[in-house]
Automatic annotation (TrEMBL):
SMART domains: HTH_XRE. PROSITE patterns: HTH_CROC1. GO terms for molecular function: DNA binding. Residues 207-217 have a biased composition (Polar residues). This is XRE family transcriptional regulator protein. SUPFAM superfamilies: lambda repressor-like DNA-binding domains (SSF47413).
Length: 217
C-alpha cells in the first residue's frame, strides 16, 4: 500500500514530509505520514462517556416525526425546533435572501444548473437543501451562511438570544473590514485574551499562596 496520503496539515501531533507531485499536469502538495501520535491511541480516540457528553452540551432526547429514531437536540430559549420547522425557516430565509437581491427564480435557477420549478421546491420546503447546494446558493446569491442559517438556528451563535444577536451583528460588521483592520482587531483580541489569562493565573497563584499560609498557621 502506498504510504502517501493527502491530509490536512492542521492535524495535531502528526509529523509530515511535504512534497510536490504532478498529477494530470497540475501540482499537488502531498504529505507522507510518519506517525499519527495521539490518533493511534485508543484512549485518545475513546472520548468522554456519551452520557457525560450529552449532559455537558445540555442535549435533550426528542421524538422528531421527520426522523425514524429518537434524537438529541439542544433547546434554545426553552424550546426545540424540530426538523420540519427548521426546514421551513431555512426556506423562508432563502426566499428572503433572493427577494432582498431582487433576483427572480427564473434567473437564479440556471446559476444552480436546475429549473425554476426544481428551485421552487427549496423555497416551498418540499425539497431539503444539501450542504453543497447551500454553499452553492451562498456563492450565487453573494450571501453568508449566517444570513441563511441563523434565523433557523440562532443558538449556533450563542447560548442566549442576546448573545446570538450580538455575535451575529459583530460578524456582519467584521465582514465589512479589510485585511489590515481585521489584523488589528485580531491582535487586540489576542492581547485581551492574554491579559485575561494572565489575570486568571495571578489569581490562582494568590489563592494558592493564601491557602498555603493558612495551612502553616
Amino acid at each position: 500500500m502506498n504510504d502517501s496520503y493527502r491530509v490536512r496539515s492542521a492535524w495535531p501531533k502528526m509529523r509530515q514530509m511535504r512534497s510536490k507531485r504532478n498529477i494530470g499536469g497540475s501540482k499537488h502538495i502531498t504529505f507522507r505520514i510518519k506517525s499519527f501520535g495521539a490518533f493511534t491511541s485508543v484512549g485518545a480516540m475513546s472520548g468522554p462517556p456519551l452520557k457525560q457528553w450529552i449532559n455537558e452540551l445540555g442535549l435533550q432526547q426528542v421524538d422528531d416525526p421527520g426522523i425514524d429514531k429518537p434524537v438529541y437536540r439542544k433547546p434554545f430559549d426553552g424550546r426545540i425546533a424540530l426538523s420540519a420547522e427548521l426546514e421551513n425557516l431555512i426556506s423562508i430565509s432563502l426566499r428572503e435572501a433572493r427577494d432582498k437581491r431582487k433576483l427572480p427564480r427564473s434567473k437564479l435557477a440556471p446559476l444552480l444548473g436546475i429549473t425554476k420549478q426544481v428551485y421552487g421546491r427549496y423555497e416551498n420546503g418540499v425539497s431539503r437543501l444539501t450542504v453543497s447546494r447551500l454553499i452553492h446558493l451562498c456563492e450565487v446569491l453573494d450571501a453568508t451562511p449566517e444570513e441563511i442559517i441563523a434565523p433557523a438556528a440562532p443558538y449556533l451563535w450563542g447560548e442566549t438570544e442576546t448573545k446570538a444577536v450580538l455575535l451575529l451583528a459583530t460578524i456582519v460588521k467584521l465582514r465589512t473590514f479589510d485585511e489590515e483592520i481585521l489584523q488589528d482587531i485580531f491582535s487586540l483580541l489576542s492581547r485581551i485574551d492574554e491579559t485575561g489569562s494572565d489575570s486568571g493565573d495571578r489569581a490562582m497563584k494568590v489563592a494558592s499562596t493564601s491557602a498555603t499560609a493558612d495551612d502553616r498557621e
